[in-house]
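Batch manifest, entry 17 of 40.
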Amino acid sequence: MAVDQKKDILQELEELRRELYLSAAQHVLTSREIYQVSTNLDRVIVKYLKEEYYK
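Output type: structure tokens
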């Protein structure tokens, strides 16, 4: 179960990273867009760390 959650979180991170790269390739990101992506990424990282260290 923990392995599945870890894969889900890593997959979520990869999707956010891909979204950021695609957005950057299409146009210059605004401060608001950068903030939103950064916040989403932070949430996923925190989720991953909680799963990893507070089992």
